[in-house]
Amino acid sequence: MQIQLICVGQKMPDWVTQGYQDYAKRLPASCSLQLVEIPLLKRGKNADIARFQREEGEKTLQAIAPQAHVVALDERGQAWNTLQLSEQLAQWMQTARTVALLVGSPEGLAPACLERAQQRWSLSALTLPHPLVRIVVAEQIYRAWSVLQNHPYHRA
Q1: Would the annotation count 124 as a binding residue?
Q2: FRET partner for 48 with CA separation of 20 to 30 A, picked from 21, 58, 59, 72?
Q3: What is the pTM of this model?
Q4: Is 125 annotated as contributing to ligand binding?
Q5: Contacts of 116 by beta carbon, 8 Å cutoff, 6+ apart
Q6: Structural domains of the chain, with CATH
Q7: What is the pLDDT of residues 130-147, one digit of tens each?
């Protein structure tokens, strides 16, 4: 199974890239994590945010692999603890060849992306900076996989 982490935004600081890659490379080929970056349109003082969000959403939808199971990261989504996420991962591994995890712009995901999603996942009740979300998702996917493998990384 392949997991696409499709994020609006690019040109992250080195610490973000290193943090993300550290966890992504720990996953085996049978549960690989691939980062897909969608360019964030330049916001200015008089920017048409609704149009930008719509255009970024269209590019996000185009990046989703055919037949992928789509999960929108959304503050109104379902909050999963580690064991619940590992159960989700196990289910995805049994039923989907590809899972696409969608992360929107600072304004959130476009409505079309939310409509396309079969599930919504809330990482936290806290507001997280978008660069940090990449690292948190990668670490949590690795942790969920380690639970399924009875790997000692996760200690409950």
Answers
A1: yes
A2: 72
A3: 0.93
A4: yes
A5: 61, 64, 70, 72
A6: 2-148 (3.40.1280.10)
A7: 899 999 999 999 999 999
